[in-house]
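G., before I forget:
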Amino acid sequence: MYPENLRYADTHEWARMDEGTKIVTVGISDYAVKQLRDIVFLELPNIGDTFKQGASFGAIEAVKAVFELISPVTGKIVDVNQSLVDNLELLKADPYDKGWMIKIQMEDINEPQNLMSAKDYETFIERESHKGGS
Amino acid sequence: MNRTPLYNIHVKMNAHMGEFNGWMMPIYYSGILEEHKRVREKAGIFDLCHMGRLRIRGKGAYDLIEKLTTNDISVLKPLDVQYSLVCNHEGGIMDDILVYNLGDGYLLVVNAGNRQVILSWSERLQKDTGIHAEIEDASEEMAMVAIQGPLSHRILQGLVDMDLDTIKYYRFNRGNIRGARCLISRTGYTGEDGFEIFMDVQKAEFLWSELLSAGKDCGLEPIGLGARDTLRLEAGMPLYGHELNVHTNPFEAGLERFVKFDKDDFVGRKPLVDVSRRGVSRKLIGFEMGERAIPRSGYSIVKDGIRIGGVTSGSFSPTLNKNIGFGYVEIEYAKEGLEFEIEIRGRCVKAVAVKTPFYRRRRS
């Protein structure tokens, strides 16, 4: 269901770490994209910006609500997918590859991360969608 | 959580439901942007049952309403509808309403969140003044549905036994829709041509389905509160709780034309006379963003590093393909063309004050 080679946050970001460079690529899951419906704006940081784990590195705006994007690791932004900002359709079409948002260089490779496997994320989603209202 | 008579139909139609002022309402069916576009280009129907419908009758009904509201109902003939405001003793806005002259009384349509407030307030006013009028909350016995959009006239005409051309803007009449007696007014909250229909609550589901069938070929679909908000914002219409509340007066909200001083005393008259004489200290303005970030209620409006006001409503405008909003600014900054900034998540984003409404439909 969800790509096995990625790890997932309970705030719906996915992360893919390059073992060699310790650069983490971050995006959002297709579950999040579907929940957002009419996405009209994506705000991404600048290259060189630094973020602590758990801090907001940007925001994604649907017509009626804005959602903060949370960094899964502490580090410095080394690349930003600027073309995604002008082409939000990519989020629906390819959220795990062409829809990547930032590449962040980890400051401490031993930093504990609260990320789930694809299977655990799937379970998490099932529980989320059965909770309350719609 | 309250449910309207159409709740089951919304769920059956897979509406994405959400809470609005204590009511479980459809926020969208297919999506806000698509629904917004549909109303601008074709037509859509809206469940308005959550709004309040108060009937005022008796020989003192006229006097009570004159005292309760800021507008002048001496000009409101039978079959006329009038936009008006209910203010408190300080001149703060308690609700924006529509007043219908039914001939044998009046119908007040009030906002969903103010149903109980306005009912209690009217009852207290009636008791305090001793005016002979009966106030009845008819909200549960009457359902209310709107059909809005350029094709709404054609679609509704196919269902109703009277000539809709005879119902002019801000007028109403009674007719039969598929045998059900209805009150049909040419009013709306979208900036498009359309009608608001009142029917017996028992007929709500039936008429909702009949409208959808009749409008199928024209592309009629149900529309949720999400698009209702983006539509009214483009049309420059205020939303109670955002542009209007008890801390705002009609003059700073740009609604002075609905305040008539050449009528008998009404609640809030004195403070409003004072405001009209000395002027307002702040004013509601419309603005456009220079970038794609969306202004939202509560964000600060800033100029030269100083906070000059706050956003009351904001959204992406599908028709204009820009981000727009409303907000109050200190009076010296309330000028069309003035540039300022909106503070969005710690960043100052450029905006410019523009004339409203943001969108005006082409009249045929």
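The interface with chain A takes residues 16-19, 27-28, 31-33, 226, 229-230, 292-294, 296, 315-316, 323, 345 of chain B (CB under 8 Å). Residues 115-129 of chain B form the longest helix (15 residues).

More on Monday.
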